Amino acid sequence: MTTARLDDWLTTRQPLVLGLFRMVLGLLFTTEGAATVFGVLDRKASEAGDWPFWYAGVIELVCGALVLLGVATRGAAFLSSGIMAFAYFTEHQQDGLFPLQNGGLAPVLFCWGFLLIVFFGPGAFSLAALTRRESGARPVTGPVAEQSR
After folding, report:
1. pLDDT tens for residues 3-61?
2. By 3-state DSSP, what share of the chain in percent is helix, strand and coil, each rounded to 5?
3. In angstroms, rounded to a whole number, what is the distance separating the alpha carbons of residues 36 and 24?
4. Model pLDDT, residue 131
5. Residue 103 — left, alpha, or beta (φ > 0 → left; ψ -120 to 50 → alpha)?
6. Distance between CA atoms of 145 and 2, rounded to whole angstroms?
7. Contact 57/48 with Cβ under 8 angstroms?
8. What are 101-131's pLDDT values in tens digits?
9. Which CA distances in Å does 30 have to 24, 53, 66, 97, 133?
10. 39-53: buried (b, 16+ CB within 10 Å) or exposed (e) per residue?
């Protein structure tokens, strides 16, 4: 397989891989929220109203589920990215500069992963895409879509 054919093959599968990435990231974020709010998965639950942990857990649970399902994906991903940046700088940064020093690797990866989804969209397998097809809405075209042709 030549490099050009490999590039074409990979390019045609970008929406599928992005959709799978979104679902895995959403599922992982949802489990973080469930562990914080409900005390599952060997974690003690935060007390209701405990700032900022309980509120962050609720956001993780709700936004993670929205991202997982592909509903209001970009807004949920934007909020998720922001809360992870907030968590990193308020809870982890004080213990060292780098994530490996301060235990903040998960918030950094979540933050950048969600930011990727904000800019690239939900990819394949989203509920929003299913409802758009049923309603007859057409996909939006733009400079990125024109460049890929």
Report:
1. 999 999 999 999 999 999 999 999 999 999 999 999 999 999 999 999 999 999 999 99
2. 75, 0, 25
3. 19
4. 82
5. left
6. 24
7. no
8. 999 999 999 999 999 999 999 999 999 888 8
9. 10, 14, 9, 27, 27
10. eeeeeebbeeeeeeb
In order of 4, 11, 116, 138, the CA distances from 120 in angstroms are: 23, 14, 6, 17
How crowded is residue 123: how many other Cβ atoms within 10 Å of its Cβ?
20
Beta carbons of 55 and 113 less than 8 angstroms apart: no
**Rounded distance between C-alpha atoms, residue 139 and residue 133, angstroms:** 9
Which pTM value belongs to this model? 0.85
User: How far is the C-alpha of 3 from the C-alpha of 24, rounded, in Å?
Assistant: 29
At 85, the amino acid letter reads A
Distance between CA 49 and CA 148 in Å, rounded?
48
Q: Are 105 and 87 in contact (CB under 8 A)?
A: no
C-beta atoms surrounding 81 within 10 Å: 20
